[in-house]
Amino acid sequence: YLYHSYKSFGERMRQGTRANTCLFTYGLSFSENDAHITRKIANGRCQHLFVSLYGNPDSVANKKIRSAVENLRARRSTPLEVTFYDAASTRVWG
């Protein structure tokens, strides 16, 4: 199941050629453990990335996430708009 989902995610990242293609992340730390996912985003065609931050945007953990996202953005060959949002503002689990 995870392999199939990973393959499907990779395909979606390659297909994002429309102007409104976006990706919402929730709880992704953008750390080395997530490198297989962030590589797909960096090499993909998604045009707008929404990244959740939990708590104070200036906390050490959130600064690491923001820095990693900016590094990802710099590796892209196509522009990537990034919007950070408050994870607590969503009702992901109902």
Task: Write up what this structure looks like.
With 94 residues, this protein is of the alpha/beta class. It is built from three helices and three strands, in the order αβαβαβ. It has helices spanning 2-15, 35-43, 60-75, and strands at 22-25, 48-53, 81-86. It has a three-stranded parallel β-sheet with strand order 1-2-3, covered by helices on one side. α1 (2-15) packs parallel to α2 (35-43). The longest helix is centred in the C-terminal third of the chain and has 16 residues, at 60-75. 11% of the residues are buried.
As residue ranges, the low-confidence spans are none
How far is the N terminus from the C terminus?
24 Å
For the biggest β-sheet, the strand order reads 1-2-3
Q: Major β-sheet, in short?
A: 3 strands, parallel
Overall pLDDT metric: 91
Number of strands: 3
